[in-house]
Amino acid sequence: MRETAIVVVNYGDTGLLEQNLVTLAEKRPDVGVVVVDNYTSPANAADVDAICARYGWGAHLSPTNLGFGGGMNAGVELAIARGATRLLLLNPDATMDEESLSRLEAHVDAEPMVAVSPRVLMTAGTPWFEGAGLDVRDGTMVGPERLGEPDIEPWLSGACLMLSAVLWHRVGGFDDSYFLYWEDVDLSRRIREAGGGLRVVGDAVAVHDEGATHGTGGSRAKSDLYYYYNVRNRLRYAQVHLTPAARRRWVASSPVQAREVLLRGGRRQFLDSRSGLWAAAAGVRDGLAGRWGPRGGQSPRHDDALGGRDDRPLRVLMTYMQPLPFHNPYVKMHDQSLERTGQVEVLHFDWRTALSGRYDVVHSHWPEDIFAASSPLKAAGKRVAAAAWLAVLAVKNIPVVQTVHNLELPDDKDPIKRAMLRHIHAIAEHRILISDTTPPPDGPYSVVLHGHYADWFAEHPKPEPIPGRIAYVGLVRRYKNVEALASVFTATRESHPEWSLEIAGNPSNDDLAEAVARILEGDERAQLLLRYLEDTEVVRVVTSAQLIVLPYKEMHNSGTVLTALSLGRPVLVPDNATNRDIAAEVRPGWVHTFSGELTAADLEWAMMAVADQPRKPAPDLSRRDWEVSAAGHLEAFRSALQSRGEQ
């Protein structure tokens, strides 16, 4: 495991990657490297992919330009997944020697809640960054000589910044709504608000060739994007962090601050072009209007920022209907997370909307549900409607994004329905995998982990676990093997009279419900609640138990596992790659596994293992935040649209 990872966001030309990264990586082979390519062209992405393959680096090839903060977030997520505990965020036009890297590592190891920066020099040896401050009275940037004065807040540059994975998770990474510039100022403030610190390590040095990425050819002039985002994001920072009175002061000084930003490029630039003026003016306009992608959403495209494009939300048609109170919280949280970005309007499936509504993308989850019917006549009508809908998608060139919830398609007995489901699967432009262990499909795909339920259940009362209580919660289906749990539990009547069992959830049919009840008949330790559960009941069943047992015959992913972990209860699940992966992700002691058929011995050792559960650190579900999920889905939707020539 490589504990330090260098994370670089590349945009455009790839020459700096080999020029600046290779030497350091060769001198420190124990250091991992992750490169994020912010999309410019397929050829450029292929170059990045080839370079990373050549040197054994990790690559994240984004189908869109995520901006600096969004790109770093994606790269850090990959680096942490590969085992990194220390993160060096580095511009592609910056480099450092191995001694300076070691000094930064030593500081982070000694104080994991402190982010550190080296002194950063220009190629000529002049200082580029030795610390900086922000005057919170009016938003003026100041030099390190004023640090320590009242109203001067310190910040560290994102051009070369090291911090621990612990600190990164504590603050949640960069706020990608900034897109470019000021995201490091924002991160610095959130680090301090989280109880962390900022430090410039004087005996560590990096070299930064700013012109190499800004493409100024030696001129002082900056790009229009530099002017736009620096001016706009000053007001973004004010909106996030300042009181209303302080925001008003910053707004009043916006023209003066915009002039200061423009003059960083010198006065001679205006002899050739006034475009910088218009870019700065657009930054003031959009900052005052609050035009920025919400955190976790897609940041504005460059041409959007400077005017001239319809930026309405994407209209996404889900293949499930409007969720009802007893429906899986997953779909409700999925909808909410997307709509919170401000860039997606969620539409729920009904035949009128599907056939005649306006939408940009179809998001397929469980398409078999749209065929559900209470009579043969209605089933025939839905098959006709489905055929018409598939024709609409083809004529309107509407892409389908499919979330892969199960490894196999439903094996329906109706050949027409089965053929239509296979067709929906075949036309998917992009697939979303909700587990790292799902086999990669043919064609474009991305991994967006199943989100947690901690926020969903946060307001419900959570009783203390009942000693010896085992529980099953969730829909009762044949493949979930609930009868096996019931049989194994009854076999412990004499050996463990102190145990109790609760099975709660709606059965697929009466025969299955009766079978489970017959097995447990006469065992006073067991109780059944075989119906749809309210959220309060789910929380009560889960948190009353010491152990949640899911004895599935086959398990690729399970929302119930995440429900239990979100509520702080350990699980016993079948041993497979997916569950081993979750066990490694969430910290030891939370996911226990059994091989083959569930036995009484499996229950015994699992119950022994969870006896001291209250003393264990809470499960780590940070990779499953819904903001992360929304960003991944939005990226997939835009990728599918690009493939269809819509963007």
UniProtKB/TrEMBL annotation:
Cross-referenced Gene3D superfamilies: Glycogen Phosphorylase B (3.40.50.2000), Spore Coat Polysaccharide Biosynthesis Protein SpsA, Chain A (3.90.550.10)
Q: Which InterPro entries match?
A: Glyco_trans_1, Glyco_trans_2-like, Nucleotide-diphossugar_trans
The record ties this protein, via Pfam families, to: Glyco_trans_2_3, Glycos_transf_1
Entry keyword annotation includes Ligase: no
Q: What are the Glycosyltransferase 2-like domain coordinates in residue numbering?
A: 88-243
Q: GO MF annotations for this entry?
A: glycosyltransferase activity
Matches recorded under SUPFAM superfamilies: Nucleotide-diphospho-sugar transferases (SSF53448), UDP-Glycosyltransferase/glycogen phosphorylase (SSF53756)
Annotated keywords: Transferase
In what residue span(s) does the Glycosyl transferase family domain sit?
469-592
Protein origin, superkingdom: Bacteria
UniProt-annotated stretches for the region Disordered: 289-308
Tell me the protein's name.
Glycosyltransferase
